[in-house]
Structures are given as C-alpha cells and as structure tokens.
Amino acid sequence: MAKLNMPPPHGGELVYRVIEKREYAESMAAGAIEFDLKATTDPNGVPIRHVYREIISVCYGFFSPVEGSMTQNELERVLEERRLENGWVFPYPILLDVSDDDLKALDVKEGDRLLLKLKGQPFAVMDVEEIYKIDPKDVATRTFGTPEKNPEVVRQPFDEKHPGWMIYRCMNPNVIAGKWTIINPPKFREPYDRFWLPPAECRAVIKHVKKWRTCIAHQTRNVPHTGHEMLMKCAAYTGDIEPCHGILVNAIIGAKRKGDYPNEAILEGHEAVNKYGYIKPSRHMVTFTLWDMRYGNPIESLLHGIIRQNMGCTHHMFGRDHAAVGEYYDKYATQILWSEGIPSFGFEAPPNEVDKGLKIIPQNMAEFWYCPVCGEIAYSENCGHVKQKQKFSGSFLRGMVAEGVMPPKVVMRPEVYKAIVKWWKVFGYPFVNNKYLENLNKELEIDLAPMEIPKA
Amino acid sequence: MVHYIGVILDESRLAKIKGTPLEEKIQDLFGGQLKMLVVEVPEEKSQEILKAFDRARIDSRGFIEDLPVAFKRALFEEIAKAKSLDVIDKVLERLPEIQEAAKKESEYIPPPEIE
Predict the structure, then answer these.
(1) Chain A residues inside the 8 Å CB shell of B109
(2) Is B66's CB within 8 Å of A411's CB?
(3) Has residue B115 got a pLDDT over 70?
(4) Predicted complex ipTM
(5) Three-class SS of chain A
(6) What's the fold here for domain A192-440?
(7) Which residues of chain A have pLDDT under 70?
(8) pLDDT digits over A47-75, tens only?
(9) A22-134+171-184, what's its fold?
C-alpha cells in the first residue's frame, strides 16, 4: 500500500471569505442594505437553527466549496443529486431564508448588497444573486428522503419529531441567494476560543505542528465515555503502512436539545482524554464546527466527510446510527452509503469513489461493549460473549450522573466526569435545560466587536 | 413486553439493604465496579411511567432511562422498605409527589462535592 498524504480540500480550493482589515471591511459594507439575522424557530417559538453558524462555517471554509446561500438551480441539484452546480458532492441546502414581511421591508433586488447584522453589530455582507420562493415542507422532505423514493435506507416518513426535518420545515418561504463574506470576524467566548481551529489553520497545525501524515476524524456531540475512547483508539489503527498518526475530534456545536450535555462540557470532556494521557495530546486534538445538526444519518455523514477533509483528515470513522435520531433511517444507512453507495440519493458508488466526490477514506466501525468474561472493553466483531455483554448506554450514564454517582472509571474517565461537574456548578444543572437554552440563544458562542459603517 | 429500571447502589444504599434477601439480587456491572438492582416493569406500567415523564425513554437494552432522580430515589426507598423488588405499584401510588419533585429538578440539581 502506498503512503497516504493529506487530501486536497473538497472542490480543490479552500474557501476563505473573511475580511480582517477593518478599513476594507467598512468600505465593503458602506451603503449596504441592513438586515438583522434571525433564528429559525419551531411553532412554539423555540430557536432550532441560526444561520450565522452556517455563514461562519461557509466563510471559514468548513463547507468548501460552498460560498454562500444557494441559488434555485443549485438547491434543485443538491436535492436531486446531492451535487453543487459545479458538480462537486454536497448534501444539504444552505440557504438564507427570509419572511414575506422582511423581504417587503428590505425592498432588495438582484445586484444589491446586504449587510447582515448579528447581536446588533455588522457581521457579514452578501451580494444578492437571486431571490426566489421555496416550499419549506417540500425542501425538508426532499432533503432527507422518503421510504418510497429512497427505499434502500429510509424506513419511515420524516415528520415533526425529526429535528433536522423541522429546521427546513420551519424555514421562511423566500430565499436570498449570494456569496457571504464576513467583515467582522467573530470572537469566540471561553471555552470555545481554545478549540476554534478553522480549516486553513487546522491543516497547518496537522502538517507543521503535529506533523501528522495521516489523521482520522471523530464526530461527536457528546461527552466521551470509554466506549467512545476505545472507538477512537481502535479506528485509528487503520491508516496505510502504519496506524493513523493523529485523531481529530470535531464536535458539532449548534442548536441543543434538552437533556444534551452542555457544549462546554463536551469540549472539555474530550480535551480531558488527551490532557490526562488516555490518548496522548501529540496524537489527539479537539476542535469544533458550528452547525445546527440535521440528524440526517447518511446525508449528514457526507457533510461530516467534507468538513473533516477540508480540515485535513485522511480518514473518517463512522459508527452505527451515525448522526441519527429515531428510526427514520436504517441503522447502517451511513455504512451502506460509504461501502456501496445509495443510488436513490445520487450515489451509484461510495462518495469517495465517484467523480467530484470526497477524498477522505471511510472507516466503518461496529460496536464496543464491556465484556465481563474478557474483562475489558470489547469490539462486537471480536467478542463472542454476546449474552454477557454490557452495552454502553448514554442515557444510563446520564442517569448515573444526575444521581450524583461518579461513574466507574472503566465507563467514564474521572477527569471527564470532573469536566461535567465543573460546568454543572456553573449552570446549576448537568444537562441542557431551559435556562441553558435561553442563555445560549441570547449570548451565542461568539461576540462581535463594535463597528461603525460609514454611510455610502 | 417487560422493561427494566436499573437502581444503582452506592455505599449508602448498599448499607441499607445489607443482610436482606436483596443482596442476592445485586448485579455486578463493568467488572464489579458498579452494583445495581434491576426492577422488572410490565408493559402497562412502563407506559404509565413514560406518560408521566416526557423525557423518559426505553434504551436499546430495554431499560427505562432518563427518569427523574426523584423517581429513582422513591424506587429505592420502596425497595429498602419492602426488602423486595416487587414495588413498582407502590412507586406509582406516589406519582403525584414524584412529579412535583421532578418539576423542581428540571431547573436545578445540586452538583456533587468533588474537587
């Protein structure tokens, strides 16, 4: 086997649409039509998505080669074939949607420049390429598929209980398409700032600081238990002539649901894994991407592959029920996509074997459990003591944490538990609750410096 | 279908059931690092529990999880009192009181005192 090297960014070039120089930024925004970015809310008024997270991920290159809100042709091609207009694979509609009232008030047309504001400050600009209408329910359903159209992996129709379907379902009926450029770079609050490593920087760190030739990505939105740790360690044994040099943990940070662990505990919990030597820091690094998770299982895995390829990873581990909620998809939908393709979603072959596809290599993994006979955490494809297995259950662990019982170290490292307790003391609660959500939706993960825009 | 609720036993709970027939029913988990009693819950009772607590769910092992701490505490109290695992009816009789305590739990749970 030939030695592997860092793959190129998806689409060939890393997108970077961030203006650091204040004078250029101000001149770009001068005279632009102002628009305050708003959260997408569910029918109860609860925020379920905020487009600024997509703007940041696009402009810093996580979603390369996407450069902004999609045109109608591009949206259609993504929904039909999971391809951008230039032919590169991309799974999800990325859209700036506005209400009828806002569109009327904006009085905007093609060719105009919009100044997008966040937290009362200038944030980004966009040159309007197109304004068009969508049927949000149709976009939602076509994004995730149906049992009739996608019988290979879709097991039941998507509905209001699916958080990703609801994000698209609750969008406004008008889309403003155009490229985004950040003119007021966000300042991440603690502890996010320590883990903020956008693709260009991440690639440089992997290559020149960590000196990893190969690197496997681990997707997370959870505090790690030892099952996760063992998954990372064992998946990293793949590589080329030797195991992967590095493990890149990339947390998806975005809309939260009650009962989740707080973002802060997730990031610091993963950090504890390397800080306390369970996987050496020279081999393990924690980062995050802003994205309101759509829970699209195989569809989501494409986005995860793109993000981590753009960050410089050679491999990506995929487990059972990857980025899934409920039983809408086959448990193995992601692994089916990456091992044989899903023709009804536009993939006659795995996404890393099609033209203009991904270059990242999948590592499909089965389960880990504790085996009392083996006396260790065992891989399901090795361990023959199926009757005696003791599965890692996230909800069982949450119950233990809520009762104030420190999980045994064979299940959760004490330092990871201490990261949970640290943030429990800050928020008065170990998990996301109403108060946490209210605070997150008000404060966001970022602050923006005050910026005066000169009149045109 | 029968579902299950696991009651974790820390040192203080173990002391409360010492010398009772319950000791024989203690299950070892994760190489004996965790001790647990497992209560069987018939289908209609598990539905009643799921209805009473909107965050409760049945996990892939068939265990009812994400129950309020107040429910788990009441369950252990009844187990210790009856010295038996056949107490689910007794716990369900206390549902209004448990639901009231659970409401407070959704906003604040005191953190454990660890460094």
Answers:
(1) 402, 404, 424, 428-430
(2) no
(3) no
(4) 0.82
(5) CCCCCCCCCCCCCCCCCECCCHHHHHHHHCCCEEEECCEEECCCCCEEEEHHHHHHHHHCCCCCCCCEECCHHHHHHHHHHCECCCCCECCCCCCEEECHHHHHHHCCCCCCEEEEEECCEEEEEEECCEEEECCHHHHHHHHHCCCCCCCCCECCCCCCCCHHHHHHHCCCCEEEEEEEEECCCCEECCCHHHHCCCHHHHHHHHHHHCCCCCEEEEEECCCCCHHHHHHHHHHCCCECCCECCEEEEEEEECCCCCCCCCHHHHHHHHHHHHHCCCCCCCCEEEEEEECCCCCCCHHHHHHHHHHHHHHCCCEEEECCCCCCCCCCECCCHHHHHHHHCCHHHCCCCCCCCCCCCCCCEEEECCCEEEECCCCEEEECCCCCCCCCCEECCHHHHHHHHHCCCCCCCCCCCHHHHHHHHHHHHHHCCCCCCHHHHHHHHHHCCEECCCCCCCCC
(6) Rossmann fold (3.40.50)
(7) 456
(8) 999 999 999 999 999 999 999 999 999 99
(9) Sulfate adenylyltransferase (3.10.400)
